[in-house]
Write the structure tokens for this entry.
Amino acid sequence: MQIQGCDFPVKKKIKITSKIGINRQGYCVNRAEKKRIAERDRQKKKNGEIQKNMRIENRTPRQDGFHMPGEFEPQDGVLLIWPKRPGSWPYEAKEARKVFAQIANKLAETETVYMLTEPETEVSARELLDENVKILTIRTDDAWARDVGPTFVTNGREVRGVNWTFNAWGGTFDGLYQDWEQDDKVAEEFCSQTGYDYYDAAPFVLEGGSIHSDGQGTVIVTEACLLSGGRNPELSKGQIEEQLKEYLGAEKVIWLPHGIYQDETNEHVDNVCAFVRPAEVVLAWTEDETDPQYALSAEDLAVLEHETDAKGRRFTVHKMRIPKEPVCITEKELAGYVFEDGEDMREAGERLAASYVNFYIGNQAVLVPQFGDEHDTLAVELLQKLFPEREIVPVFAREIIIGGGNIHCITQQIPAKRM
């Protein structure tokens, strides 16, 4: 079977059957620079800039009256990770870093932006980031802050984090790389450095991109992702739903069947459907019945048209067109990747899961991906209609989609302490 618009067969995730030695690409870093960064972090701890936090055990957010707010609600900040992984970001991530910086600098105009770097990447980050972007030294395996960072919950006065288990979107069953230990520590380390108490949901496996909340008790997910064999295969659908309710403070979970075609995360919800306000969503859509996405989105629409949210309200669904032309990996882009042993590899002509639904809602702006497609303007116009009080910021995001995700995937919001 050929993928429409791309000269490449249908891609399936590779099952990783064992962990093997990994030869990571080395990065040269000046010893004096390492020493300077270490001394800076020691001084921060001494001055109380790195705050104490508490891991909350034997309790859940729902038990304590906390819930996950909507992304459209007020925020104190946002978390991103500086890209470096050569198997995700071609040509040493040089072009990707420019787009990450564009996004971070824009959001920093109205909220605190935290950028996670490592000693060997901090200098390159500081060269492109505005001075008001806060840099934290936390080691990671890749740059998907939405999935590895903490999910934040609030009771209207206080904000706490939730630490999920991360296993690279499928672990040894069908994960995308074999060594995810550093990514799995990001949520705890971020909360530690910024002073947020956090709940530990381990060993429950979840990524932030697989959930969307309306802030009023309703959470949307996809069956394709949450019921995949590489996450929580020992749990039933009902048991997974109970975990979501406990740790997100939710009352109702809406299960959409599918995400975006060829989405290597097992079809995260944040690429196909998103809340713009309670009881109102955008849904990725195509009118082309020959496109594989048509049937997937049609099944999702059928669920939304027959469901109600936690308050008993019917959903208003706005159809957001996917790019008219499939977005595919080029030979030139492929030549820039350096893949590790056991890492999911790309191929020229591979259709990517490009979707305008992968936008990010900031305090005063909505950042929406653009692909150089004639449907780009339709996405901007729809979001301007839905968010008349916010600036709609188009971001040419090809350098992110070739990494495997988009703007929403690289950002993780931190809600305001007082909603």
User: Anything to note?
Assistant: Residues 31-47 form the longest helix (17 residues). Confidence is low (pLDDT under 50) at residues 14-30. DSSP finds twelve helices and 17 strands in the chain. Residues 87 and 284 are 28 Å apart (CA to CA).
